Amino acid sequence: MEDVIKLSHGSGGIETLQLIKEITKDIKLRKVGRGTGLDELDDSALIPLGGENFLAVTVDSYTVNPIFFPGGDIGKLAATGTINDLAVMGAEPLAILDAIVVEEGFPKRDLQRVLDSFKEVLRSEGVALIGGDFKVMPKGSLDKIVISTVGVGIVRRENVILDSGLKVGDKIVVSGTIGDHGAVILAFQLGIDVSNLKSDCEPLIRIMRRVIEIGGVHAAKDPTRGGLLMALHEMAEKSHVTIVIDEAKIPIREEVRACCEMLGVDPLSLACEGRVVLGVDSEVANEIIGSLHDMGYKDATIIGEVKEVEPGLVLAKSLVGGLKILEPPIGEIVPRIC
Amino acid sequence: MEDVIKLSHGSGGIETLQLIKEITKDIKLRKVGRGTGLDELDDSALIPLGGENFLAVTVDSYTVNPIFFPGGDIGKLAATGTINDLAVMGAEPLAILDAIVVEEGFPKRDLQRVLDSFKEVLRSEGVALIGGDFKVMPKGSLDKIVISTVGVGIVRRENVILDSGLKVGDKIVVSGTIGDHGAVILAFQLGIDVSNLKSDCEPLIRIMRRVIEIGGVHAAKDPTRGGLLMALHEMAEKSHVTIVIDEAKIPIREEVRACCEMLGVDPLSLACEGRVVLGVDSEVANEIIGSLHDMGYKDATIIGEVKEVEPGLVLAKSLVGGLKILEPPIGEIVPRIC
Fold first, then answer.
1. Cβ <8 Å between B47 and A95
2. Considering only CA atoms, which of B44, B137, B148 is closest in space to residue B98?
3. Taking chain A, what is the end-to-end CA distance rounded to the nearest angstrom?
């Protein structure tokens, strides 16, 4: 068997993390000064700017298939996903750059439509587009379009939120229903009617500003590839704690649940593109939930808490009593989900 | 005829510039504060950091075909090209992020080889890798690999070099032979023996540090897609000046010239990946050439000067006397050249 890259290496689950660690392990310069980088593998890297500010920088390549889907398109996703990677660090997005690669023969009206969605997100969130790149690959060498988006933001030291910040006793909060984006993409790829599904693709800046204002946010992550399950695993691993989840409390739309049951996939492994998982001080948990409800995020809820059992463990309360181990997502999950 | 994206839109010539201007014309937030961005379309965008420093940020997607070529590979190119986009702004590179998309089935040993080249450039130039992304596209939806590289650097206000900085009387300098990279890629794509050709792919940091130390550098650009010709046109256009070139003085390797003649392409439109075009004060021009020679860049030479004829014009001294207009590059040139 040849040693080749498989779809599972790009799933955002455990194989992706292992591959990234393997190919970067011999790099010595892994961060700038007292910033963060390859060791932390947070949603953005942080570069100290002197004084009390850090620069947050992130890049993602968006390959979603189909490029137009209920609730968004690759343009909206490429702007939103990158802005969210800044927001969950506690950063204020400042500027975006985008490198676009399209296939020869790609319709100009589709490019315009995708870019209109991209620009609309930037406009509504007040983020500047300051540069980029545009390449064309000959017909047959790329399926439609790939957009790589760079996000640059500023975060004050006191507002920096890392995956490693969870504390024993913290409550785990999700800001809305789980798996909507993943379900719509998966169903579409399998040719299933998705008229009752819609991606949750949405910027998280307003939510993050509000919860930072309240305070007591110890960790935050947008559960994209690998879904809620991978986000919880990364937070538990980096914070050296155990997360105990009450699965019955996880908000999942009936349509998403039905779709997952039909297709035999775990909704907890499906990407969200407009949700955040927070680890918050138990004293502010109810205030945060109340605030999110007031902002219209009526499905925001506490789904679990942080315990001191074993570093990196994610457990779920079993319906028949006791606790079961939730393994991190493995395998292909959904190709080209984002 | 359907309105679709053509290879020429990605050539780095006049069609690329027109398309980028068209798709970004309705964007209001085009820079951060008193920085630079979509209006300048320089090799990096600049974000003011307060005080005397600017942040330089750039992104490029590398799609070169073949991925391994004499003188380099897509990994070396992806690190070098981005570092050079920082260097020609006068910036010191600080950190790199890379978003890699590979095709399912891509050999792991090729990925390792590409990344080893990428990391070797970072190591030798002292630049940190602080983050990135890794995605996999199903077999048949991407030809091998695309690497999008983000560069972040710092530049002091007094060292900022813009394409718009040319002054009448400046000398135009190139640091070495022209078109080496483009010729090797083009020949390879056409199945021609390239054993006597080699890409010029190389970081420009040392050169840029030295010429900034000397002073009098008014404009700098690495002539990648669109080649020397497009770089001269962009500088002339943005600086509202005319550049007059003495074609006989442009250093072109005999092998590159022969290859271009055989294939009917203009070496001035072929990409370089380790050369810089400088506009320098005439008083320092000879000192800069001398320094470049001392550093081993023995082909560095003055190829022309800046005149006040008509904004945006590039002229060449004709061999039979008089001046001829050099039009900017148009058409496909070489697909997937970088």
1. yes
2. B148
3. 29
Helix (H) / strand (E) element for B112: namely helix B108-125
Q: How many CB pairs under 8 A join A and B?
A: 264
- Alpha carbon distance A81, A79 (integer Å): 6
> Does residue A60 surpass a pLDDT of 70?
yes
Chain B nearest-CA residue for A38? B130
Q: Does the predicted TM-score (pTM) go above 0.95?
A: yes
Rounded CA Rg of chain A: 19
- Cβ distance B4 to A107 less than 8 Å, yes or no, reads yes
Q: Cβ contacts (< 8 Å) between B66 and chain A: which residues? A: none
**Which two tokens mark A311?**
């570093």
Adjacent-strand bridge partners of A36: A46
For the question of an ipTM over 0.90, the answer is: yes
Instruction: Encode pLDDT of A287-307 as tens digits.
Output: 999 999 999 999 999 999 999
